[in-house]
Specification:
139 residues, mainly alpha, 5 helices
């Protein structure tokens, strides 16, 4: 158990480091090529925006996945919530709730922009409200 967790953590750190390096390289290349940039349409994504979406979805998967070990430990192994820090989960739940609500409440008034806004913020909405949902089961 602890060896596989250690390997997972090392892999996770390597993936996050690689993504950060890729994103920094994209930002540097973008700033160097500003003079050669061709105007793009408002609906297309450049590499930096696409990197941001990819990082957002990866973050969502890791964030949602962070609750499953605690759920497994509570339900399958201990069959109790003894030792769980309720203050940690209460604060995390309040943070996820307010973060998700801030994204929803910032939604544009114009219906034509709502779908695009929702699509652009989907990984963070799923992450915050999904973890909030899982935290209910943890607590």
């Amino acid at each position: 158990g602890s060896k596989s967790l250690r390997n997972f953590c090392i892999t996770w750190i390597m993936v996050c480091t690689a993504l950060c390096i890729i994103l920094l390289c994209q930002l540097l290349l973008r700033s160097q090529d500003q003079s050669a940039v061709i105007k793009r349409s408002n609906n297309s994504l450049d590499m930096v925006e696409m990197s941001g979406f990819i990082c957002g979805y990866i973050s969502c998967v890791f964030y949602l996945g962070s609750r499953f070990p605690q759920l497994y430990k509570n339900v399958s192994r201990r069959k109790s919530t003894e030792g769980t820090s309720y203050l940690l989960f209460a604060l995390a739940m309040m943070g996820n709730c307010t973060y998700g609500l801030s994204l929803v409440l910032k939604m544009p008034a114009s219906e034509s922009f709502r779908a695009l806004y929702f699509l652009h913020h989907l990984p963070w909405l799923v992450g915050s409200f999904g973890v909030l949902f899982l935290d209910v089961f943890v607590s």
